[in-house]
Specification:
single chain; mainly alpha; two-stranded parallel sheet; 4 helices; 2 strands; globular
Length: 100
């Protein structure tokens, strides 16, 4: 019935407009930066805020999804990477909101 249609409509809207990739595309469009051929320097505010922001994390993820290796993060946004050292991973997870 109409519940199913409404739920599907909301899911479609969310997938199209509220994904990390859609957020990054909106940011690039707003700044008149084309996706094709662009490079982005991502500067996380780790010195000011040691905890990752959901917004910053979402934008970084979306930019990386759109641009791949054309996004350079400095200093390295370590929350976005799988770490090979378990002690380092525990340290990073321990600093996440909700504790990872």
């Amino acid at each position: 019935g109409w519940h199913q249609e409404l739920a599907q409509s909301l899911l479609d809207y969310t997938a199209k407009h509220l994904s990390t990739e859609a957020t990054a595309r909106y940011l690039l469009d707003t700044l008149n930066i084309p996706v094709e051929g662009s490079k982005v320097l991502f500067l996380p505010c780790m010195a000011i805020d040691p905890f990752p922001s959901y917004l910053a994390s979402s934008v970084f993820h979306g930019l990386h999804s759109l641009l791949g290796d054309n996004v350079v993060d400095f200093p390295e946004y370590q929350y976005a990477y799988q770490l090979s050292d378990s002690a380092e991973e525990e340290h990073v997870k321990g600093n996440l909101w909700g504790q990872g």
